[in-house]
Design brief:
The protein has 197 residues and is mostly helical. It is 79% helix and 0% strand.
């Protein structure tokens, strides 16, 4: 599994423009959210942060199975002597790494721009939620990788799957979020072998 994740990181590092675009999105969205919190109330910082994490997951889904299809390497990936579940888990781990890295930059910039360093307290919820959206993002990428309408379908799938965790997320209920993350993750991983065959 680790060699597949390393391969994905090597490919991602070659795409410097995409990295710069993602970091620019994170910086601009942090600035806009912080500015909006000065105009209204600081209560919008946490919800806006999690919305941006969902957008990061949607953007990151293109680096998963969709990139393999676009690069015409998906069939080689299917032929390696590894189970489809391991391939899916490696893509999920890669997506999780990207979401965590960009989310941490987002959290840092949002704290600086809003001058509210209490946001660091949401770190445990953020890590669990990042894993949740990484699983959903990798799943949506695998599910629609051959579809012509994937640009529309991926955001819809990610947002629909995110709805069940909005309540525990906004209530900062880590236990419920963790239970829902484990349940959805196990369900999606069990389906992955059928999707990737």
């Amino acid at each position: 599994m680790i060699p597949l994740v390393v391969k994905d990181f090597k490919v991602e590092l070659r795409r410097k423009f995409e990295i710069l675009s993602s970091l620019t999105f994170v910086a601009v969205s942090s600035l806009i959210s912080a500015y909006a919190s000065f105009l209204t109330t600081k209560d919008i910082l946490v919800p806006s942060f999690f919305i941006i994490v969902v957008f990061i997951a949607v953007f990151t889904s293109t680096t998963s199975f969709i990139r393999e299809v676009d690069s015409k390497t998906i069939y080689g990936l299917k032929l390696i002597p590894t189970s489809p579940v391991i391939v899916f888990l490696s893509k999920t781990l890669f997506t999780f790494s990207l979401v965590i890295l960009q989310g941490l930059v987002e959290l840092l910039l949002l704290s600086i721009f809003s001058n509210d360093f209490n946001l660091i307290a949401i770190l445990p919820i953020f890590v669990v939620f990042s894993f949740y959206v990484a699983v959903v993002s990798a799943f949506s990428s695998a599910l629609v990788m051959f579809s012509e309408g994937r640009g529309f379908l991926i955001p819809m799938i990610v947002f629909i799957f995110t709805l069940p965790v909005v309540s525990p997320l906004l209530n900062m209920d880590l236990t419920t979020l963790l239970i829902e993350t484990v349940a959805i993750s196990l369900s999606i991983v069990s389906l992955s072998s059928y999707i990737l065959e």
